[in-house]
Specification:
Structural class: mainly beta
Radius of gyration: 13 Å
Number of helices: 2
Number of domains: 1
Number of strands: 4
Order of helices and strands: EEEEHH
Distance between the termini: 41 Å
Oligomer: single chain
Strand order of the largest sheet: 3-2-1-4
Length: about 70
């Protein structure tokens, strides 16, 4: 990464509740911050991360909320 620019690298996939589809990605920025980028369908409930992240990283992206988001079918 170039330290003069703010850049991010995908570090984990967000896996849908069907456990077959990737619905987004977790990015780590060169500033140390984490952010989520959703696929074209936007935010939706997730079942897990792959690869799994440490508890501190999960807390930063509020993974508990991501697993409880309303599904469009709810």
């Amino acid at each position: 990464m170039n330290e003069d620019k703010v850049e991010g690298v995908a570090i984990a996939n967000l896996i849908a509740v069907d456990e077959n589809n990737i619905v987004g990605w977790v990015y780590r920025w060169n500033t140390g911050a984490l952010a989520i980028r959703w696929d074209v369908h936007g935010p939706q409930r997730v079942s897990k991360l792959y690869p799994d992240l440490c508890d501190a990283d999960k807390a930063e992206i509020d993974f508990a909320f991501l697993t409880q988001m309303p599904c469009p079918d709810d």
